[in-house]
Amino acid sequence: MELYAAIKARRSVRQYKPDMVPREVISRILEMATWAPSGLNWQQWEFMVLSGPKKDELARSYGRIVEFSMPPEGKRTPQQEGFLQWARTLGGAPVAIVALTQAHGQPGIRKMNLESVAAAFTHLLLAATNEGLGTCWMTGPLNNEAELRKILDIPAGKEIVAITPLGYPAESPEAAPRKSLDEIVTWIGFDD
Ligand SMILES: Cc1cc2nc3c(=O)[nH]c(=O)nc-3n(C[C@H](O)[C@H](O)[C@H](O)COP(=O)(O)O)c2cc1C
Q: Does 174 sit in the ligand 1 pocket, CB within 6 Å?
């Protein structure tokens, strides 16, 4: 897929087919992630690829977080119920990918590490789009990071950056509207 087309085709997908993604396809996507720029070329990214019970535990943990912020059962809107269902199951995705970096006490280095992994994660999402796969960048599950760290047995020296389900989309979401460049760009030193 042409790059601009892939950028525009990517969506946050929250419903997946159960079909497993072949391991070589996942490896190809992860390899594309490693072509991202990184601060000092430290390539400070690591990935956990989950399927099976650990992925399901991660989803249930996210489900509890989402449920916590919602009205009790019976008082939820259909949209809220739908979102809760997505969270509890990751929309039925067969795979989840967790991106990690080295934890760092110095704010400047921590920022550099996080930004490097965010760049790699963007590559990952676009490569997945190119393979006909769906993803959804998630930081919501980090709202109970302690539980997540326990589930995934993540040591103190590592920081979780983001998580995405990975699988073949079972929905084709509309594009979320974008802000116009007029709202967000300040041109300096250019003629009008
Ligand atoms: C840093 C970040 C965190 C996000 N966390 C979540 C999340 O926890 N759960 C979720 O369902 N979507 C999450 N999203 C997806 C956004 O809701 C989505 O990107 C946005 O609504 C735009 O839609 P699009 O990705 O289809 O263009 C996150 C996206 C980003 C970039």
A: no
